[in-house]
User: Which sequence fits this backbone?
């Protein structure tokens, strides 16, 4: 390791040191042990920026740090892989971790919480795990830190262990993501067993090995390309669990039981982001398998719609955000699945910023509301908390995908990439259609949330006299608000397509043009591998305009609908009332019959149906697995009668059974 | 000299008597004796095969097995004694406080 | 490299000898003052003796005992090959010594106020001597002797709380089933002896593979192939004896009761060291004496298939039964049965044409398991010391009263479940990988399903201590020095073992390679 | 069948036949005068009290157990004795031949001393001996 990269391990180790300090002596430190964490994440942020600068200067690193142990077949090691992708992710993760630490001063310290050292220690460990995951240079190391991330979320979601719901939410999050991780584990092992390497990059990477194996080798009786699909999908199991994609998304809404800054961290930068980041990290591998890509795209598109509809009926501000997260990660998966690597990463980065912003904003609102989270008890906060309002609004508009906020640019690119592939692939087109429809719902629930929270008249005592929030809460909000506004400038792809300006910075960054890059890990290399053809309507320019117009139009329509539905000082609970169409027509805030139909005839049933499906079918399956194993265990334990004579008889029976079975096997009785 | 099959049949018979005793007896002492029968069946085998193969190993091992069987009985009697103190019986099917 | 000093060859048994001598020393101490034993002296001697044995073992390992000649000191063979000291033997002697030391330290507090201190420690040491000898046994004679030397003290130890009905009942069940299985085992030995005419493991293998029509030692006319029936039944009966010692199906019935009723440190001792010793015998006997192909050619079946079946049955029964327990100690007992199933995969892989990796992974798993399982049972010992009760509900909220111990418990549980940052992960991972490479897809699948299930009940305990409200107020809980020290040592090792996996993995793989190629 | 077997058989025959013959002979010759005193159990002149099915002191079994164990151990000394002279002539030093048996006996002695000190061979309960191994707690 040379030059600046000598310091790269420090990025990861700073939060670990903070964790250790806070854990050991946190109770003697001021501010509940927040300072080591803030200093450490600040240091990580600074160093991450240095790394990004180094990458911009044309350097990258892919180094072995510590060899775990070797066998003749394979070496297990820890290593650092810093390329444009991980450098960008490092900056975002450490930035958000830093801001969350600062924000926590307001959210946790000022509220007189107990157990703060435990909280900050957890945050430190969480940040450490995620940063280590980001710089991992091989799949096993990824897996280890992926799991550690899950463990930290378990600890932090269950922070308020005295409540009834938090521990079970923590356990659910842990178990559901673990369920996905078992597939991941099988995938890791299968990849190791078939290629003898787990490295992401370089000549000895499993991607290279798989590439050369295709058309020439078979593994475990499968063709190499089938095997790539199988292993890729197994790893995807972990991604689906962590990134809360259908059908393993159920843990995420429950995870709202954790402290709000933790939610911000989980949703924006760490746990949930880990899944999509993993897909991006090993994108070269997925690019080899059209089937795996199609599955990713379809799951993504479906999740985007499915979660967005559910977001429309939630009353708890954090629940709305939770479903929006699931939906937005669906977009990223869609982007990955259609080969839109840049679009996916772009949306990942943008989403990290604006979702952190929204959660921190929601956190500020929750402080102000004395820990009330029901949006129907809020209202009228706009005048009382302007900083929060304007930053939250910026985040909301970004989430809804309204030009010129960051979310518009990335979501548009996702949809554009999906569209040009979808025109020749019917399955992708279906995914695209669902994602497009989800844009409408996104606009709807986002603006509904803003309206209910900040507009209208205060609907509770707490909303009339909100609690003041401190400076540590306002600064992160302001920083993130600005970023949510200008973040789109990272990659103004439509402008490049239409006006020929060279403004797709992120694309060049990820492609290693003018900056450092690792062979085989560039957008360019990926695009060559992906087998999709592109089609256009009215040429590339026409398609760009069409796609942008469609998504913006739908977003505005959804937003506009919500804006009008929930206008006025005392908005009505549309989603609560299931009255007949006539009752609704009397209501004067419907603009036209189409919207009424859309709101009543489609939105609500769909949303309710998916919500019910979520509650019954999926949770039912999870519970069912539990009961089957319990029942089986119950049967098995009955063997254990407690009578030693029975045991002796069973032992003798067992011996006889072994003799008979092995004897038949050995042909003794013939 | 008697054919080796005779010894093996004898020992197998003894072994099976032991097994039968284990399956039917509930008295701890009887259980223990049944186990001893099985061990002795093995000793007969060892000695007989030692004769058959013309090596001493089996005989010496038989001696060891006898020694160990004695030690086992000693431990067993000790346990049966405390069993009687605690449960007032040496019926092995009585102690079932732990199960499932 | 340290030059091995010119000691008599018998000194190669160092760890076992040190343990045995320490037992005698404890007897002498106890004879000196039989009526008011000095608990500290007895526990201290025991711990010191086992640490010394550990030191000797490590020294031999570093000196290269067992490593083939040019690089190391070579395998040391004693008493005409009745005992061998190689890497496998040293590896398991270390495991035994470590667990014995932990148990001795923890027992100082646990056995406070109990009678029979001298007996307790000397029996622990004698059993440990037996286990260490098991590791070196290379003949069916020594295997059986060492096995009994380990078993007989164990029976007495389980029943040592003479006024506790649970302890006595556990002792009775353990003893009766143990006696039964050792009778079956020795009968199996006699049949193998009849078929091959020899008892030493390598000679048995020679007789099986040779097909010379002659007795391997005397040269008399003797055709092993003519006695294939005896050999086949004998092998199955040997398998049964080993299954008892490792608490595998169908001889696992004693385990839940014995572990539940026994004093908790003894349960830790039996479920870690004794089980590991059972596995070393299984590995030694089956890989050395019964080469897979030759044996299959003679008796018709492949014994590794039997191990594969037992592995799947054992892990499934263990984990399913553990999932429904309310009593923590009993849950751990069943989970220990489940882990025996994981370790059996190592033997199942031998016949499937796997390389040393599967077997090496099984050895590593046993090593890591020695720490995490001992630790878990020691936590139960601590809970019994506090007198908080035995069920999951009784453990509720202990995390607030005794955070350090509960952190250790969390480490053990997550490690047992195989969560990555901890020691249990990598060994399970390697087992999984190895079994997949060997093409044992079914076994690998069972491993994953069972691991997933095990997470359910392990995390349940973690949830109980940290997140649940206590049913009764525990008041302030004492912090007994010995128990805490042993607990923390085990926890630290469980964590440290993963980053430091290199040397352990190396020695385990070397041991596996050596035993497979010999 | 060799002559040795004939001699052994003759010895066995005589060994069994002699006592049977003498008992038969005396029963034929002696007068038969049955009376109560003769049917009683002979207890060295004492008049017997109680039935035969009373419980023995547990210490009795302890001693019996010790006897069984140590008795069996002598079986291991026996082969050593038989080969002792041959082994010495075979070359190894006296120490090499003697040491294992001394170690074996040493271990047995440690065990015996321990058992003794712990009261396993004290015949009856006394004030000075701790009855740990048998007390009814």
Assistant:
């Amino acid at each position: 390791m040379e030059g600046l990269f000598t310091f790269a391990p420090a990025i990861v180790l700073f939060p670990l040191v903070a964790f250790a300090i806070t854990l050991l002596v946190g109770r003697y430190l001021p501010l509940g042990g927040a300072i080591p964490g803030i200093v450490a994440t600040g240091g990580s942020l600074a160093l991450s920026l240095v790394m990004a600068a180094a990458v911009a200067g044309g350097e990258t690193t892919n180094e072995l740090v510590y060899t775990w142990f070797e066998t003749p077949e394979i070496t297990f090691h820890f290593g650092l892989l810093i390329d444009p992708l991980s450098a960008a992710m490092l900056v975002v993760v450490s930035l958000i971790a830093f801001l969350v630490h600062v924000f926590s001063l307001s959210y946790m310290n000022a509220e007189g919480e107990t157990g703060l050292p435990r909280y900050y220690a957890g945050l430190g460990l969480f940040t450490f795990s995620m940063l280590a995951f980001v710089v991992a240079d091989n799949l096993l190391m990824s897996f280890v830190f992926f799991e550690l991330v899950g463990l930290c979320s378990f600890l932090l979601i269950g922070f308020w262990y005295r409540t009834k719901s938090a521990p079970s939410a923590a356990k659910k999050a842990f178990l559901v993501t673990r369920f996905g991780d078992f597939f991941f584990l099988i995938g890791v092992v299968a990849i190791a067993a078939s290629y003898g390497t787990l490295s992401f990059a370089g000549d000895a990477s499993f991607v290279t090995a798989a590439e050369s194996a295709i058309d020439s080798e078979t593994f475990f009786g499968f063709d190499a390309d089938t095997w790539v699909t199988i292993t890729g999908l197994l790893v995807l199991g972990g991604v689906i669990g962590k990134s809360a994609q259908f059908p393993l998304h159920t843990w995420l809404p429950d995870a709202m039981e954790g402290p709000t800054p933790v939610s911000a961290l989980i949703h924006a930068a760490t746990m949930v982001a880990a899944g999509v980041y993993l897909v991006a990290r090993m994108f070269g591998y997925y690019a080899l398998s059209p089937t795996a890509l199609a599955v990713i795209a379809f799951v993504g598109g479906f999740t985007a719609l499915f979660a967005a509809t559910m977001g429309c009926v939630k009353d708890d501000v954090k629940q709305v955000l939770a479903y929006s997260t699931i939906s937005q990660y669906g977009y990223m998966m869609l982007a990955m699945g259609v080969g839109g690597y840049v679009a996916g990463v772009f949306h990942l980065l943008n989403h990290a910023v604006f979702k952190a912003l929204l959660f921190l904003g929601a956190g500020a609102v929750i402080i102000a509301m004395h820990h009330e989270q029901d949006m129907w008890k809020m209202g009228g906060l706009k005048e009382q908390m302007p900083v929060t309002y304007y930053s939250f609004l910026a985040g909301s508009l970004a989430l809804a995908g309204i030009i010129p906020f960051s979310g518009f640019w990335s979501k548009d690119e996702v949809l554009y990439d999906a569209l040009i592939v979808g025109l020749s692939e019917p399955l992708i087109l279906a995914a695209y259609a669902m994602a497009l429809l989800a844009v409408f719902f996104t606009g709807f629930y986002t603006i509904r949330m803003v309206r209910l929270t900040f507009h209208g008249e205060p609907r509770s005592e707490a909303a009339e006299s909100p609690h003041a929030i401190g400076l540590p809460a306002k600064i992160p909000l302001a920083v993130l608000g600005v970023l949510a506004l200008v973040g789109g400038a990272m990659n103004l792809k439509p402008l490049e397509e239409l006006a020929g300006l060279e403004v797709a910075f992120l694309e060049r960054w990820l492609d290693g043009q003018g900056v450092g890059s690792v062979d085989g890990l560039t957008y360019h290399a990926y695009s060559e591998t992906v087998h999709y053809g592109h089609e256009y309507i009215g040429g590339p320019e026409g398609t760009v305009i069409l796609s942008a117009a469609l998504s913006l139009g739908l977003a505005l329509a959804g937003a506009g609908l919500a804006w009008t539905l929930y206008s006025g000082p005392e908005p009505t609970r549309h989603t609560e009332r299931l009255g007949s169409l006539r009752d609704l027509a009397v209501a004067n805030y419907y603009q036209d019959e189409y919207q009424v139909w859309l709101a009543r005839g489609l939105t609500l049933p769909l949303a309710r149906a998916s919500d019910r499906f979520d509650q019954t079918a999926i949770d039912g399956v999870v519970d069912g697995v539990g009961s089957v194993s319990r029942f089986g265990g119950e049967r098995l334990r009955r063997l254990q009668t407690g009578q030693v004579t029975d045991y002796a008889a069973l032992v003798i029976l067992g011996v006889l059974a072994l003799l008979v079975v092995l004897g038949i096997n050995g042909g003794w009785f013939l | 000299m008697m054919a080796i099959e005779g010894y093996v049949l004898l020992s197998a018979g003894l072994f099976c008597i032991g097994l039968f005793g284990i399956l039917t007896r509930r008295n701890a002492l009887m259980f223990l004796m049944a186990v001893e029968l099985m061990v002795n069946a093995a000793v007969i085998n060892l000695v007989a095969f030692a004769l058959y193969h013309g090596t001493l190993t089996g005989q010496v091992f038989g001696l060891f097995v006898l020694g160990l069987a004695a030690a086992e009985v000693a431990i067993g009697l000790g346990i049966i004694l405390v069993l009687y103190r605690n449960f007032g019986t040496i019926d092995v099917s009585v102690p079932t406080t732990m199960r499932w | 490299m340290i030059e091995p000093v010119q000691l008599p060859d018998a000194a190669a048994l160092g760890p076992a000898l040190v343990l045995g001598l320490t037992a005698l020393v404890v007897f002498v101490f106890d004879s000196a003052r039989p009526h008011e034993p000095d608990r500290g002296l007895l526990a201290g001697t025991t711990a010191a003796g086992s640490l010394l044995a550990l030191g000797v073992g490590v020294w031999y390992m570093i000196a290269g005992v067992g490593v083939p000649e040019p690089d190391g000191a070579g395998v040391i063979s004693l008493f005409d090959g009745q005992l061998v000291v190689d890497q496998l033997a040293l590896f398991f002697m270390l495991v035994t010594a470590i667990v014995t030391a932990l148990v001795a330290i923890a027992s100082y507090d646990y056995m406070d106020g109990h009678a029979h201190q001298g007996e307790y420690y000397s029996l622990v040491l004698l059993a440990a001597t037996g286990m260490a000898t098991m590791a070196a046994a290379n003949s069916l004679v020594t295997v059986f002797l060492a096995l009994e030397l380990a078993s007989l003290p164990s029976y007495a130890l389980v029943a040592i709380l003479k006024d506790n009905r649970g302890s006595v009942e556990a002792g009775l069940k353990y003893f009766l089933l143990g006696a039964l299985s050792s009778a079956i085992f020795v009968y199996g030995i006699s049949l193998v002896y009849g078929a091959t005419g020899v008892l030493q493991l390598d000679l048995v293998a020679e007789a099986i593979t040779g097909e010379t029509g002659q007795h391997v030692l005397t040269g008399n006319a003797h055709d092993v192939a003519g006695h294939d029936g005896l050999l086949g039944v004998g092998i199955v009966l040997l398998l049964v004896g080993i299954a008892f010692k490792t608490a595998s199906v169908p001889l696992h019935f004693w385990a839940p009761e014995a572990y539940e009723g026994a004093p908790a440190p003894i349960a830790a001792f039996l479920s870690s060291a004794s089980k590991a010793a059972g596995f070393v015998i299984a590995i030694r006997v089956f890989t050395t004496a019964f080469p897979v192909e030759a044996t299959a050619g003679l008796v018709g079946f492949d014994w590794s298939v039997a191990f594969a079946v037992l592995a799947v049955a054992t892990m499934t029964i263990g984990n399913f039964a553990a999932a429904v327990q309310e009593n923590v100690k009993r849950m751990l007992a069943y989970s220990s049965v489940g882990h025996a199933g994981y370790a059996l995969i190592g033997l199942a892989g031998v016949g499937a044409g796997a390389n040393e990796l599967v077997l090496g992974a099984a050895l590593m798993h046993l090593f890591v398991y020695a720490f995490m399982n001992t630790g878990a049972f020691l936590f139960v010992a601590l809970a019994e010391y506090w007198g908080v009760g035995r069920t999951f509900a009784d453990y509720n909220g202990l995390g607030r009263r005794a955070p350090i111990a509960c952190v250790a418990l969390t480490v053990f549980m997550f490690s047992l479940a195989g969560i990555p940052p901890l020691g249990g992960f990598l060994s399970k991972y390697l087992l999984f990988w190895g079994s997949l490479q060997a093409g044992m897809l079914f076994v690998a699948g069972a491993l994953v399903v069972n691991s997933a299930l095990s997470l359910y009940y392990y995390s349940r305990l973690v949830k109980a201590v940290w997140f649940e409200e206590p049913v009764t107020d525990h008041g302030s809980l004492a912090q007994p020095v010995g128990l805490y020290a042993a607990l923390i040592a085990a926890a630290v090792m469980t964590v440290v073992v993963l980053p430091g996996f290199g040397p352990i993995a190396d020695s385990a793989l070397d041991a596996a390679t050596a035993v497979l190629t010999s | 069948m060799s002559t040795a077997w004939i001699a052994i058989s003759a010895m066995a025959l005589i060994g069994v036949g002699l006592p049977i013959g003498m008992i038969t002979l005396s029963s034929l010759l002696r007068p038969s005068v049955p009376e109560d005193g003769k049917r009683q159990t002979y207890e060295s002149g004492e008049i017997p009290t109680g039935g035969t099915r009373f419980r023995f002191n547990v210490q009795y079994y302890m001693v019996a157990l010790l006897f069984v164990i140590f008795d069996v151990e002598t079986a291991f000394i026996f082969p050593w004795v038989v080969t002792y002279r041959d082994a010495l002539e075979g070359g190894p030093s006296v120490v090499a031949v003697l040491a294992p048996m001394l170690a074996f006996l040493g271990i047995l002695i440690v065990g015996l001393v321990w058992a003794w000190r712990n009261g396993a061979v004290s015949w009856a309960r006394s004030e000075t001996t701790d009855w740990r191994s048998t007390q009814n707690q």
